[in-house]
Structures are given as C-alpha cells and as structure tokens.
Amino acid sequence: MEKLEAVQKVLRFSTPIREWCINEFSIHFDDFDEQNVDDYDSGGYGDIADEILERGLDEQIIEEDDLD
Fold first, then answer.
1. Is the pLDDT of residue 4 over 80?
2. C-alpha span between 24 and 19 (Å, rounded)
3. Gyration radius of the chain's alpha carbons
4. Chain center to CA of 6
5. What is residue 66's predicted lDDT score, i.e. its pLDDT?
6. What is the pLDDT of residues 10-68, one digit of tens each?
7. pLDDT value, residue 55
8. pLDDT at 42
9. How confident is the model at residue 14, as a pLDDT?
10. Which residue pairs from 49-55 have beta carbons closer than 8 angstroms and sit at least 24 positions apart in sequence?
C-alpha cells in the first residue's frame, strides 16, 4: 500500500494516534495528501507521517509487509 493509504488507515483505526496528531500538530486525516506525506521540508508532513506509520506498526494496525 502507498504511504498515504497507510497513514490514512492508521488514523482511521487508531483513536490514540489520531488524537495525538490532532492535539500535537493540529493536523487531521484530510490534511494529508500524496505530496506532503513525502515532504520533509518545512511545512511538509513527512516526519509526522513516518511517526504515524511507526505507531501504526507498534499497534499492529499495519504490518511492515503492507508498506511499499
């Protein structure tokens, strides 16, 4: 699955991760798109997306094999 799809899956199925993202960064599910999940510059969400994926792996919402 593509990175955006994986991020959205984690946010959809994990209330703690979704709330962390909203409370810590004021970023919501719909704020992510195909470009900004891979953007590591200022204003991009690459680092946040990576952390969401790591937390999703830890919570077993996604598996390493799911990621492209």
1. yes
2. 8
3. 11
4. 7
5. 82
6. 999 999 999 999 999 999 999 999 999 999 998 899 999 999 999 999 999 999 998 87
7. 98
8. 87
9. 98
10. 49/3, 49/7, 52/7, 52/10, 52/11, 52/17, 52/21, 53/3, 53/6, 53/7, 53/10, 55/10, 55/14, 55/17, 55/20
Say how far apart CA 49 and CA 47 lie, in whole Å. 5
Amino acid residing at 53: L
Token pair belonging to 40: 């590591």
Q: Which amino acid, one-letter code, is at 20?
A: W
Of the candidates 57, 65, 42, which has an alpha carbon nearest to the alpha carbon of residue 7? Answer: 57
- Please name the residue that has the structure tokens 């599910």: 29
Interhelix angle 15-25/46-58, rounded to 10 degrees, is 150
